[in-house]
Amino acid sequence: MKSENNIQTPRQGKATTGIIFLLLGVFMLAKTTGLAADIPDWIISWPMLLIIIGVLSGINHKFRRPGAYFMIAIGGVFLAERIIPGVQSHDLIFPVILLALGLHLIFGKKLCNKAAVHN
After folding, report:
1. Quick check: 16 and 56 in contact, CB under 8 A?
2. Do both 101 and 59 map to the same domain?
3. 104 domain residue, yes or no
4. d(CA 19, CA 13)
5. Which InterPro entries does this entry report, sorted A to Z (predicted)?
6. Are the beta carbons of 108 and 66 closer than 8 angstroms?
7. Is 4's pLDDT higher than 60?
């Protein structure tokens, strides 16, 4: 028997996304005005936004679709450049693509089949 308590309605998803964007806007405004000089630049960046969108998409689809993983991976590659000194994102893109493709080939069909059986 499925529990209806764990299902998120579209309105709840919009509210959650709205709250995240609101907080991101507050952090960006505080950083720009100098009120929060202690916030690292990488927290308020487009790679972090891509990771947040990927996580939200994954939560909404219960991480069954690979799109969320790709957004998180791409955001992570470009975020690594901002966090780790000396790392160039263009040096990481091809290895991350190979890793993602390999993981999808190994686990992708199995995970999709398990999800289809449990529904």
Report:
1. yes
2. yes
3. yes
4. 10
5. LiaF_TM
6. yes
7. no
